[in-house]
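ok here's Methionine aminopeptidase 2, seq below lol
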Amino acid sequence: MGDNSSSSEVHSKDQPAEGVSKVEIIDAIAEENESESDNPKVAEVQTDPPTIPITKLYPNQNYPEGEIQQYPNDDTMKTKFNKDEIKRLEKQEIGFEGLNDMRRAAEVHRQVRRHAREFIKPGKTMTSIAESIENATRLLVEEKGFEAGIGFPTGLSLNHVAAHYTPNAGDNIVLKQEDVLKVDFGVHVNGRIVDSAFTMTFDSKYDKLLEAVRDATNTGVKAAGIDVRLCDIGEQIQEVMESYEIELNGKTYPIKSVRNLCGHNIAPYIIHSGKSVPIVKNNDTTRMEENEVFAIETFGSTGRGLVVEEGVCSHYAKSSSLTQQQINSIPLRVPRAKSLLGSITKNFGTLPFCRRYLDRLGEEKYLLGLKTLVDNGIVQDYPPLCDIPGSYVAQFEHTIVLRPGCKEVVSRGDDY
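and the structure came out like this:
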């Protein structure tokens, strides 16, 4: 979901004769894990469309590990470990709180998007696409209040709209053959959100745009790591993104990083948690830290490479910065605002929501109350973010976990 190098070392007390890199340690851990009885085992085969919950497919609740990557410059950072130290590191690595929850959410995301890629075709309405993705997510994650569910509204931004569009009630927009569609959706288990996005097109003329953005996102994922400065990641992303160009209708366009969109870190139940990962060079020397979770996302545009808020809002989220005492001290003179706030708090907490989700709860005549909550800073609105009309924006995004000895791309699949 869009948002407006060195690595850690583990020191052994023992002094074996031969040193190994962390990559070799990770390989050793993987080899030991392969022989263990608690490896992920699939009990059933998923249906098409998907209807079987992930917990039924993995009854031992040991979900597939994401892609493991070494940290930047890891091959030059040698240290020494014996077998006991490798076992200790294994416990430390797998001990990240919520990692298995994230892996479960990521497997839901992979299976839902696999079906979505087949379901999404020109001629479908935005509403039918959003509902297909959301209904499948609810089934596979076994939606249950704050224990499991949708991480945020399904983004289906078209063409020059970069982010934060999902259909409201009565929206009749139909997907067309020439459209560039960003599909951005999230899944959470116990508040651990997996945020991942991809772009779909139906004309090969857009291939270079998608290639540029996919390459830029993978560059950002590769550059990320413990103690890495955010500005350094942005610089590398921009360099790769802007090395591409695309020809459309006989005219060549440079592909630009959208400079006021960023990746972000993720906290339990909070999709944007304070740190922003730039996709252009800037001066933010903030560093990534061990056990942080980040959504690495990039946006490439044939337009200005700058987005502005424009159009009817659909995305909202209750403020995570206000205490309940502060909220209670705000006078809400519109009675409907108070009851709506209660519904939002009960059903979403600080997770983002959209108007369709309020409709689904049976809320009626809530627009004035919602505006009152926004005007008082209790709820934040997130209008669509748009480049210039006639331009095209693509997006790819992955969620990563900065584990102590390796980086796990939890949302990685065989599709992107």
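fwiw The chain has two domains: 1-309+391-416, 315-382. kinda neat tbh
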